[in-house]
Amino acid sequence: MARAVTPSRKAFTTVVAGLLGLMMFFPVLWIFILSFKSEGDAIKAPMEILFNTGWTTESYGAVQERSDYFKHFWNSVIISVGSTVLGLAVAIPAAWAMAFVPGKRTKDVLMWMLSTKMLPPVGVLVPIYLIFRDLGLLDSRVGLVFVLMMINLPIIIWMLYTYFREIPGEILEAARMDGASLRNEVIYVLTPMAVPGMASTMLLNVILAWNEAFWTLNLTAANAAPLTAFIASYSSPEGLFYAKLSAASVMAIAPILIMGWFSQKQLVRGLTFGAVK
Amino acid sequence: MKLKSALYAVSALVSVTATATIAEELTIATVNNSDMIIMQKLSPQWEEATGNTLNWVVLEENVLRQRVTTDIATDGGSFDIVTIGAYEAPIWGAQDWLVGLDDLGDDYDYDDIFEPVRNGLSADGTLYAVPFYAESSFTFYRKDLFDAAGIELPDEQMTYDDFAEIVAQLHDPDNGVFGTCQRGKAGWGENMAFVGPLVNAFGGKWFDMDWNPTIDSPEWNAAITYYVDLMNNYGPPGATANGHNENRALFADGKCATWVDATSAAGYIFNPSESSVADKTDFFQAPKQVTDKGTGWFWAWALAIPTSSKNQDAAKDFLAWATSKEYVELVGESEGWVAAPPGTRKSTYANEAYLEAAPFAETVENSILAANPADATKDPVPYTGVQFVAIPEFQGIGNYVGQQISAALAGQQTVDEALANSQRFAEREMTKAGYIK
Amino acid sequence: MATKASRAAARLMISPSVLLLLGWMIVPLSMTLYFSFLRYNLIMPGDNPFVGWENYYWFFTDPSFKDAMINTLLLVGGVLLITVIGGTLFALLLDQPMWGQGIIRIMVIAPFFVMPTVSGLVWKNMFMNPVNGIFGHLASSLGLQPLDFFSQIPLLSIILIVSWQWLPFATLILLTALQSLDQEQLEAAEMDGASWASRFWYIMLPHLARAITVVILIQTIFLLSIFAEILVTTNGGPGTATTNLTYLIYVSSLLQYDVGMGSAGGVIAIILANIVAIFLMRMIGKNLDA
């Protein structure tokens, strides 16, 4: 597996990849740096900001004073995790059935499910808003959990389906020969094999739900508003705002970024959508 | 079964006592302006005094407007207090979406509110929103740069042609100073707020007496050509992204020699802790051209209560507090008088402390009193409004025209094309809405 | 292996998802369809009379409609082009042995976790702003006229921002695919004297075809409804330069509050999305079967 390469070539690759990686990462790094600067310093030339300005946490203080970060944070956590768990509960049986008992129409059903995701949310906001009003779901976490589950369900099913399909059918066959019931088959045979795929699906969907900004902004007011609404109050305020915007951005993306980094191995393993045979 | 009904009784009891003793919880939607942020900061005082609590939804202006409109129009009931502008208040009031606010008590002193402001927020004689701050527009300029260039200000209102000449002399991008900063970001409340009065000054109007759009008229063409030339020659780069807030930051950072914009920004520009040009700035009237009518706009941010709110009494109490004389004083004392909410109350302008801290006070007062939404154009028109037209359809038309003009400013199309497109769009919308048969 | 019983069980297991999605699709869709035939403006209350095809007429003859269609195609196409090519190159590079691969991979995938709103705001203000942004400062320090991104190259600016967000996704999938490539086959080809280019062309690329298809499919689904990035940067302008179909529907239904016309636009967008879906289905069907 390991190809033999000269150290100089390896060093060269490292440098090139490192530079490219830094380029991709730079915007995130930059707002992190700016968030620790004063407003006046944050609009200076980059070199001056890096080497010629002091550090301060005043922007974080200003942001926290104005908006209750932890309330938004908890809403984001509840909404993204809730919608993912609920989504998995609905999707696992469906994906299992499609993968192991495929019918003639399985592919069509799958594609139809994906196509519901192409529906532009702005086009159906007013109908959904009216329904939510009548059900008393406006500005409630329950309502958002449901909506985000629905918009991500096709992706969850698709991911699980492609993952389940890679589990060899012979194993199930063997289990069935041994007289395992459907329930046992799922619990003892399938689940252990499917855990990495499910973990990866879960991670991806937490990320997607965390970052969803249209429904979370439009269906909430004060109680259920997650971090996307928190950011919306810093998008174009009066006066100099780069440092505060940076601080608010860091606060909004840090939790998911850190989660993503720690779990990137699990995320990557299942993130194939059947691309690898 | 018995247990269940006993439980019901208990819970009913609890909920009755709960509503009697526990205070209301209000949801308030507001814009992320510095005045509103101060209100948010001071509101715990009201919460402590009344025992009520406030949940804040602070959004950027466009998001706020869309969010609040959707909720009010669908009777969603998400908000108890909303922040709206002088454009929405009369329209929404007439549609019975807002609670009438004529009963805030004798202490409230309605007569202390400037009359044009009160009229601007009323429909059919009922006040539907109470003003938090009000503004007109005037020209901010850098005294130091004018002096250095030896430019003397005329006593009279200058014309836009004179203005362009001055701007040309001051334009010095090599030293980081642009001749003028004006709004370029598309939107009826952004670039159109500057363009509207400019068109008025050039003798143009949105509609003739039969509601036919007149955007392809020579007056509009002259005004927009002037605007595009002025900005391309003497404006900062990236002007199409600059709205009020961006220009405010640029001016406060000393990057602009002149800026025609809201009088309410004066508190910020003259505040040394926010602005690097606080002691170098002065102001004069917004220029005129063929007419001096409608050359300064009129706008107010106001608080209102949707009829769908379930806590109207508590909400009224907050409104009376946040727009009272006492509140103005509270801000003056805790945040510095220069930051007091301007443009709403005579008492503010009679207050020595305010007049001393705010050198612009008298000019602002005069501009607001002079702005007359009912007579803002050279020719007679069927509508009211200086920089907007007070009909529901205007938002859509204003936004579209704003986009077209910003495309002309970006050089993606000519002024003629932009105005022809705008005219076509306005004709469509007015036909669709049944104004044009 | 599929018995009758297991088929019935399977149907039972799929049905919650199908029913939910069906409900999610049909309820708002039928309301949207219904609204699209009404004169229904949120800010003009009153009865909402039935007006037949009028809303469709107004939407189709909207001067922005054609631009929005073209922009949607350019946006989706542009981002796909950049992310597929860029992602392939990144994947090839990251597949090479190097020091600190874990760290580098973490840096490369970071943009994927950033909220679209945040990335739009950050690029607009901290990078592309010609006066205070980094690119502006760089250009000035080199004595050049700073590029005014959102007025000179508005659509390309949006494409670049969105590509930044999606490049990690493409890279990850393509990298995983690349790592599953049979090394012996490659080595054999190398021994036979095949150049790097021909190894890439004849062995790696065919192996990646499937992954590329998946990248295109998944990204198209998300890219068709790009919205937040446009909203916080250009508001669809200048003019209609960055108005895509989603944004145009937003303008009709939530800026002009014309729910009738917005609904008509929504119906049109759904039809177009289904056409794209059928198209993708064929493509995927060919590549993903077996």
Plain-language structure description:
The complex is a heterotrimer of chains A (277), B (437) and C (290). Chain A has 277 residues and is mostly helical. Chain A has helices at residues 7-34, 39-42, 46-52, 58-66, 69-100, 106-116, 121-135, 141-165, 169-177, 182-211, 214-218, 227-232, 242-262, 264-270. Chain A has 2 domains: 7-60, no CATH class; 67-233, MetI-like (MetI-like fold), CATH 1.10.3720. Chain B is of the alpha+beta class. Chain B folds into 2 domains: 2-135 and 298-358, Periplasmic binding protein-like II (D-Maltodextrin-Binding Protein, domain 2), CATH 3.40.190; 138-297 and 374-432, Periplasmic binding protein-like II (D-Maltodextrin-Binding Protein, domain 2). Chain B starts with a helix and ends in a 5-residue tail after the last helix. Residues 9-21 of chain B have low confidence and may be disordered. The longest helix of chain C is centred in the N-terminal third of the chain and has 32 residues, at 4-35. In chain C, 53% of the residues are buried. The mean pLDDT of chain C is 86. At the A-C interface, α1, α5, α6, α7 and α8 of A face α1, α3, α4, α5 and α6 of C. Chain A: InterPro entries: BP-dep_ABC_trans_perm, MetI-like, MetI-like_sf.
Outline of this structure?
Chain B has helices at 2-21, 34-42, 44-50, 61-73, 88-94, 115-120, 143-148, 160-170, 191-201, 218-234, 244-252, 266-269, 312-322, 325-335, 346-350, 352-357, 361-370, 394-409, 415-432; strands at 25-31, 53-59, 81-85, 122-123, 126-127, 130-135, 137-142, 258-262, 281-285, 299-304.
